[in-house]
Structure formats: C-alpha cells, structure tokens
Amino acid sequence: MGVVGCLGYTGLELIRILVRHPGVLIKVVTLREPLQRFRDDKVFTMFPELSSCRVSTIEDADFRDCSVVFFATPHGIAMKWAPKLLSIGVRVIDLSADFRFKNKETFEGFYGLKHHSPKLLHESVYGLPEINRDKLTNANLVAMPGCYPTAVILGLLPLLERNIIEEDNVIADCKSGISGAGRSSKVSSLFGETYESFKAYGTNGHRHKPEICEVAQTIIEKNKIRSDNQNLKTQFDIIFIPHLIPMFRGIFATLYVKLKSDSYIDKLTKIYTDKYKKEKFIKLLEGDKVPNTSLVKGSNEVHISIVKVSKKKEGLGSSAVILVAEDNLVKGAAGQAVQVMNTMLNFEEEEGLKGLFWSP
Fold first, then answer.
1. What does the pLDDT look like over 42-57, one tens digit per residue?
2. Where would you tag: which of 2, 141, 292, 336 has the fewest CB atoms within 10 A of its CB?
C-alpha cells in the first residue's frame, strides 16, 4: 500500500487503521514537507511500524510495488497524479473531492480549481459501499464521499430507494467537530475560538450540498422502476446547513423529511430494518434511543434512529426526522476508505475495522 499525505488528521487516521490490518503492508508514505520534519514528527512514535517504509515526496515516490495508493491530500492533488498511477496498474482511492462529481463544471465551481483529469470523472466509482458495493469490486479509481454526505445519504438511503419522500422538501441540519476543518493552522479552528461556541457556516452554499444532491438523484433514478412514482420528474433538492461545535471529532445529522403518503409513517422502522439488516457498520437504534457521537468515536459505525411525526399530532402531513451519528475521520473518511479497499481486494469488509472504538 501507499499513502500520499500522512500528516493531516485524515492521513494519520488512515495509518492508524492500516497498521493494524493483517493483510496490509504500507510500503510508501509521501508528504509535501521536508523529510526531516516527518522523521521528527510524532507519527513515528505513534506508528513505529512506519520506520521501515519508504518515505519521500510524491515527486520522488516509487509506487510500482503498491497494489493500492490512498490520497489523503488537499483537493487538487490526486487529479494530477491518478493518471500516472493508473497507467502502471496501481488502483487509487482518493479521499479528496477530485473525482466525486461527474460534471467537471460542478467541481470547478464549488472548489475553485481547474480539473486536470476530466476524462477520469466518469471512470471513478463513488466510494459509499452501501450503494456501490458491486461496482467497487472491479474499480480502479474510487472517489471517497465527503463526511457530511456519508451521514446524510446513509440517513436517507432507504427512503430514497423507495421514493417515498418529497425529493425537494428535505432539510439537513448537521453538526461537525473541528477536525473536519483539517489540521492546518487557522484562527477559526483554534481551541480558544471554538470553545463554548456554536455557529453555522457555509450558509451561502456549502460544497457538500451538490455532492449530496447528485448522489441522491442517482439513487432515485436508479430505483424509480421499482417504485410507484416512476413518472415523477422532481429534482432532488435539500436545505443543508452545517454547524461547527466545540468537540474534536464526530458528525451529528438531523434530517427532516416529508412523506409522500401518510400510509408510510408506520412502515418506516421496517423499511430501515430491511435495508440495513445485513450492513455490518450501520446500527439502527430502537425505541427512544438516539445516536450519540461519543458512542461512534473512533469507529466505522453509523448510528441511526427514526422519529415519526404523525399527521394527527402536527396537522402538517406525515413527516419523519432521521438522526444520524458518525465519526467524521473514520466512517466519514479513513475508515470508509479501508472498508472500500477491503471490498476491492476481496478481504472481509470488516478486516482491520473491528473494535475501533474510543471511550470516552
């Protein structure tokens, strides 16, 4: 394996998981900064297994012995290097946004970067195993989902597949810990700036909204033939507002949906159970239990619960509130990337990911 970018929060999390994976040997690690800083960094103290691997800049790295290379880099890096790696038979898992969209104009508009490999956009597979498991087996280039889209799409997936919610009447009220902003030094991410503080951000159009909409619309279109709403032309849309909360890791998403028929209200639990009963990383909470970010901390699990709102109580038609919690650095990034790698290489999907919990 190779890991491009290892000193950010996502890169460190990826290495934390990979070094305990029984089927993985990290052969190449690259970074953008001088190598001496890497040698002096705490990463070798934390992961002594890396002391024997090849450390270099990406320009000098030799990836020919790697079956898979992960990019835990800022947006704009993977798109420049993926063509070269793919040409020598190396499979690429990109944790940035470089290959998430099929339309390069969407990427360029929301990320402010010119796309250098637009031909690869239609070759990439969106790395959410719960919707693309079959495609991932033979994928050579995987675009990992964003942390917020992972929580939102998994919270909505059973409803989207059955086309039972109003596609243009969804609200996602989401909160994230400060690690989602990355490890670079920014005043807005300092402890003194975030402690005892709570704020919304990206209110003028967060870049994860178009990702959510594109994936949701794909799911709806794929499943319309099996639904009662085959002829519906409504385009999926969502009100998506992210918030920053004073904790290091974790995402909590509160999703408000309007059901197309009151008859669905009593079927929601069964719909979610039927969809996720075989998924090892999705845990449905029963009764009045609700997700808690501390209970998914460090793990690749997603916890989901359903709050039903009946027409008789509210007088507004039947609605539902879906609550979702995940660790943004694990299921929202590095852990899900390893889950994808396991699928690509025919490992058990849980390999290297079992028992990844921190308490407290």
1. 566 666 767 667 778 8
2. 292
Dist. CA 28–CA 337, nearest whole Å: 17
Same domain (yes/no): 118, 157: no
One domain, residues 188 and 292: yes
Active site members: 147
pTM over 0.85: yes
Q: Reduced to 3 states, what is the DSSP secondary structure of residue 198?
A: coil
80 assigned to some structural domain: yes
Out of 219-228, 252-261, 276-285, least confident range: 219-228
Contact between 261 and 320 under an 8 Å Cβ cutoff? The reply is no
- What is the average pLDDT score of the chain? 88
3 state SS of 80: helix
- Which residue range is the domain that position 318 belongs to? 148-328
User: Where residue 322 sits, what CATH number does that domain have?
Assistant: 3.30.360.10
Residue 271 has φ and ψ, to the nearest 5°, of -60, -45
> Side chain identity at 100, as an amino acid letter?
R
**Mean pLDDT along residues 27-32:** 84
pLDDT tens-digit map of 301-340: 999 999 977 665 555 568 999 999 999 999 999 999 999 9
User: Treating both helix axes as pointing N-terminal to C-terminal, what angle do 147-162 and 208-223 enclose, rounded to 10 degrees?
Assistant: 20
- Position 87 confidence tier, pLDDT thresholds 50, 70, 90: very high
Pairing of strands 302-309, 319-326: antiparallel
Alpha helices (H) in the chain, listed in sequence order: 9-18, 35-40, 43-46, 78-87, 104-111, 129-136, 147-162, 191-194, 208-223, 268-276, 311-314, 335-344
Neighbours of 295 (CB within 10 A): 17
